[in-house]
Write a structure and sequence with these properties.
39 strands; mainly beta; Virus Head Decoration Protein, Chain: A
Length: 538
């Protein structure tokens, strides 16, 4: 037997296999061996090696079978104890059917047996839901509603129920479930309901928010907008606002006023939130009922209009130059719980009406609105001269003679009346000069004699003067005539058909002079000079 010992690294060792051989490898040597077989003899080669370098770990093998002392959860219905690792029982435990293990209180503590709630079932080790909808109830009452819902033992935030309301509401409302206490029914804005929000027989979803039940499915009595306050100061509930612009992907508003088109034409509603800070966000109501306002100064049924002071309203209808904007109507007048139905409606300016054009040609003083046919037919401003096709004459009424001759600025045919003299002048153009010309007006015909008045003396039939008839109907005797008339008259009878004596002492002032037509001229001259009264004798 050949014997070969290898120590250290050897590149190649040849072993002749003509006879049995033994190879010993030690010291972690790595050896390539080339076995030479001769004479067709298979030779046994024995290799002995000491421990070499560790090899790479192999993959994990498959899990072994279950050991003793285990509990099968698929077949166990009761826990009778807990087994220690050595197989001994350390605690006894029992559970009721359809219960689960857990902990209902906060913090670390003992495991508790918990009940399975409504809409859940435990079957064959599986917990599943059996509910096909929300818990529901039917309410009774009006405004203060009550209802019964199975398995509700308390109010928990986010609890949601479906309630069928037998009766509608007339104002703010509450609901009491299973006698747990009345909770306010509110809108998702947190405000109380208003009359008509709940209809008779309506089914609505209510969600407990920790304080109140918010109601979904309210009748469409109100319209709101979520806006940004563009004012530099806080705006408060009930103030009137107009659409100003946009900020933060939402409409911005400012306080409205009727003093200008800018602050009134786009009036949109009233602030609904309790307040909205500068650049803050909140709700406005554009249509519907707003409550809890101070309306003690008004009367139910009053119509409200946009006021002068920004953000206010008034029951006094405004007129030009202020703008007319209808805001709403007072439904309830109360100092702290007033109620307005809001429905803003803006008035129109003349140039905002669709068939009036005051833009193409802007109106000026003294223009009139004229209907002009065309495409389309429109009302437009026109001057009187344009409408007539010429400049119409003017009429002046002055207490002086005319002025302004020689100018074409006065329309020909204009009239000037001198209020003191009654003389009329006409303005005309003779081809060379513009001037005023005095008009000669013919006298009109004499009017008829008026009827005799009461208590008068008809001079055409009187033959002698026996007395004077006073205005009160009494007769003054001839002896007292002088006293009554205040002067001594001349005896006129002896002056008939004679020339009057023109001496200044013959006929005292205010004497009555009787004359004939023959002496008319002289008599009249004298009478006028001495302030006499003339009696003609025909």
């Amino acid at each position: 037997m050949a014997f070969v010992e290898i120590i250290g690294q050897q590149p190649l060792i040849e072993v002749s296999a003509t006879e049995p051989a033994e190879v010993i490898i030690s010291g972690g040597s790595q050896v390539r061996m080339n076995v030479i077989v001769t004479d067709n003899i298979v030779t046994d080669i024995s290799i002995t090696a000491s421990q070499g370098l560790p090899g790479v770990a192999g993959a994990a093998g498959p899990a072994g079978p279950a050991g003793p002392n285990t509990v099968s959860t698929s077949t166990s219905t009761n826990i009778t104890g807990i087994l220690a690792g050595n197989g001994t029982t350390v605690q006894e435990a029992q559970m009721n059917t359809n219960k689960i293990l857990g902990r209902s209180t906060a913090g670390v503590g003992d495991i508790e047996e918990l009940s399975i709630g409504t809409g859940l079932s435990l079957s064959a080790g599986t917990l599943s839901s059996t509910s096909v909808g929300l818990a529901s109830g039917i309410s009774s009452g009006t405004d203060t509603y009550t209802t019964t819902i199975a398995n509700v033992t308390g109010y928990v935030t986010n609890d949601t129920y479906v309630i069928k309301f037998t009766n509608g509401n007339t104002g703010a409302a509450t609901i009491n479930i299973n006698g747990l206490g009345a909770k306010a029914l509110v809108k998702n804005t947190g405000s109380a309901l208003v009359g008509g929000d709940i209809s008779v027989g309506q089914e609505m979803i209510i969600i407990y928010d920790g304080t109140n039940f918010q109601v979904l499915g309210i009748a469409p009595n109100q319209m709101f907008a979520f806006v940004t306050n563009a004012e530099a100061t806080t705006i408060t509930k009930g103030q009137v606002v107009y659409a100003f612009g946009a900020a933060g992907d939402r409409m911005s508003v400012k306080l409205a006023s009727n003093t200008a088109d800018l602050t009134s034409a786009k009036t949109i509603g009233l602030v609904y939130s309790s307040s909205i800070t500068a650049n803050g966000t909140g709700y406005i109501i554009t249509q519907g009922v707003i409550q809890n306002l101070n309306l003690g100064a008004y009367t139910a049924g009053d119509t409200l209009y946009l006021g002068v002071t920004p953000g206010t309203y008034t029951s006094t209808k405004p007129y030009a130059p202020n703008h007319l904007v209808y805001v709403g109507i007072i439904e309830r007048a109360n100092a702290g719980n007033g109620q307005i139905y809001v429905r803003c409606q803006n008035g129109y300016e003349l140039d905002e009406i669709h068939d009036i054009d005051l833009v193409t040609t802007a109106p000026v003083n003294n223009d009139v609105l004229t209907y002009v046919t065309g495409t389309p037919n429109l009302w437009k401003p026109r001057s009187v001269t344009t409408i007539l096709g010429y400049t119409p004459p003017r009429t002046y009424n002055q207490n002086t003679t005319p002025t302004g001759s020689g100018t074409s600025s006065i329309p020909t045919g204009s009239l000037w009346f001198h209020s003191d003299t009654g003389i009329q002048y006409t303005y005309y153009y003779d081809g060379n000069t513009y001037q005023w010309t005095q008009e000669t007006l013919p006298l009109g015909p004499q009017g008829p004699q008026g009827a005799n008045g009461t208590n008068v003396v008809n001079g055409s039939t009187a033959t002698s003067l026996t007395g004077l008839l006073k205005g009160n109907g009494s007769v003054v005797s001839a002896t007292t005539v002088l006293t009554e008339i205040g002067f001594t008259p001349e005896n006129v009878a002896n002056k008939e058909n004679t020339t009057l004596d023109t001496s200044s002492t013959k006929y005292p002032t205010n004497n009555l002079v009787k004359t004939t037509l023959d002496a008319f001229a002289d008599d009249v001259d004298y009478a006028i000079m001495t302030n006499q009264r003339i009696l003609f004798n025909f």
